[in-house]
């Protein structure tokens, strides 16, 4: 699951139900759009502004014409409704996403340490660049 990159986006996500939509990444669902059209596909990404990227999409326009698309980007202002799949536990999904957003900052160093072995003791300002240099290219 991808986490919003900026502090502003994380704040927006955790203070709204956008966090639920972000927890649906990888799920197949239906998105109703404001122009009466419908997109049915797998959610690849949802940002804090409810922009949704779908994959393997069946897009149905307001007249009922269907088109198969590899991917579709829907801007947040065009979303009318997102169907939550029946198998999704809403409370658990929100709690899981909150944990992803609030992970301890030390996780990044642990992941880097696991990839390249134990790092030498360096000042904090040198630790991250050293980690990047040690990663396999």
Short description:
The chain is of the alpha+beta class. Helices cover 35% and strands 27% of the residues.
What would you say this structure looks like, in words?
There is one protein chain. The chain is α+β, with helices and mostly antiparallel strands and 137 residues long. The protein has two domains: 7-103, SH3 type barrels (Roll), CATH 2.30.30; 104-137, no CATH class. It has five helices and five strands. Strands 4-3-2-1-5 form a five-stranded antiparallel beta sheet. Helix 4 (106-116) crosses helix 5 (124-134). The chain is elongated.
Known CATH architecture of the largest domain: Roll
Low-confidence stretches: none
Per DSSP, the total helix count is: 5
Most strands sheet? 5 strands, antiparallel
By CATH reckoning, the class of the largest domain would read Mainly Beta
Question: CATH fold name of the largest domain, please?
Answer: SH3 type barrels
Number of domains: 2
